[in-house]
């Protein structure tokens, strides 16, 4: 969070308040030219402290309408951390039944745009951040509900890093790359088809580090028998390499990847 707050003083640029537009009253489902605003939005992967030297990868790209609420975007954001098994390290008993995913347990989220906080109403993440800001003598803005804040209500900069936070402490950079009116080239733009995912990095489909053939179903950490600190393994390689007659070999932690079934 500190990175986003400090970044502002190094940036110069005009913030833009989106112009007020009136939806086409004759057909509320189809946006007529200049009756709606389109936003192009990029979401970037979260970075571990050890990876802070490298630029984050774009994980999703969206097109949203100015008349849509912020909470509508959160419904199509997909993060690999959301599918972490809340059972945690199951290396001692990898065959134990799967439990819930993190996204099923920790449901709160937050946007930080233009020095203001936007929350989903489940848990107010902005409260503790504001308390921290007061101690640091930082001037932070107001807190608003995502459900009643429309994208056209925002005051934003294009190509400027903002924040999306969910799952407690999972933070993503979010950037608006374009804002424009619907025009004649957007034939029969149906509002019901938005927000729209334009690009999706399939981060859940990582290949196994050992065989390179099957998709990973396990994350293994803290072992000196593999090259990296964090390794993704398929189910056959995970069990054949790390267990002999069902007994754990060496010290390591193992976390299940629970696939998104939606």
TrEMBL record:
GO cellular component: nucleus; snRNA-activating protein complex
GO BP term (any one): snRNA transcription by RNA polymerase II
Location relative to the cell: Nucleus
Bilayer-spanning residue ranges: none
Keyword Hydrolase included in the entry's annotation: no
InterPro entries: snRNA-activating_su3
Family: Belongs to the SNAPC3/SRD2 family.
Protein task: Part of the SNAPc complex required for the transcription of both RNA polymerase II and III small-nuclear RNA genes. Binds to the proximal sequence element (PSE), a non-TATA-box basal promoter element common to these 2 types of genes. Recruits TBP and BRF2 to the U6 snRNA TATA box.
Protein name: snRNA-activating protein complex subunit 3
Origin species: Cacopsylla melanoneura
The organism's taxonomic lineage, starting at the top: Eukaryota, Metazoa, Ecdysozoa, Arthropoda, Hexapoda
């Amino acid at each position: 969070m500190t990175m986003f707050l400090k970044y502002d003083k190094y940036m110069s640029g005009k913030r833009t308040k989106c112009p007020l537009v009136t939806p086409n009253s004759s057909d509320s489902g189809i946006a007529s030219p200049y009756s709606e605003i389109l936003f192009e939005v990029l979401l970037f992967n979260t970075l571990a402290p050890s990876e802070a030297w490298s630029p984050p990868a774009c994980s999703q790209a969206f097109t949203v309408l100015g008349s849509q609420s912020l909470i509508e975007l959160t419904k199509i954001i997909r993060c690999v951390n959301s599918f972490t098994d809340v059972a945690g390290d199951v290396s001692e008993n990898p065959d134990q039944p799967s439990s819930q995913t993190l996204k099923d347990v920790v449901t709160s989220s937050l946007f930080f745009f233009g020095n203001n906080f936007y929350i989903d109403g489940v848990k107010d993440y902005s409260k503790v951040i504001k308390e921290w800001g007061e101690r640091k003598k930082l001037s932070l803005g107001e807190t608003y509900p995502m459900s009643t804040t429309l994208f056209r209500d925002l005051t934003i900069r294009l190509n400027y890093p903002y924040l999306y936070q969910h799952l407690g402490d999972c933070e993503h950079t979010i950037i608006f790359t374009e804002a424009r009116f619907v025009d004649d080239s957007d034939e029969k733009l149906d509002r019901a088809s938005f927000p729209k995912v334009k690009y999706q990095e399939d981060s859940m489909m990582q290949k196994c580090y050992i065989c390179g053939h099957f998709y990973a179903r396990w994350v293994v950490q803290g072992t000196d028998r593999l090259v990296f600190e964090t390794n993704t393994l398929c189910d056959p390689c995970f069990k054949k390499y790390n267990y002999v007659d069902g007994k754990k070999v060496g010290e390591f932690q193992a976390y299940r990847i629970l696939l998104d079934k939606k």
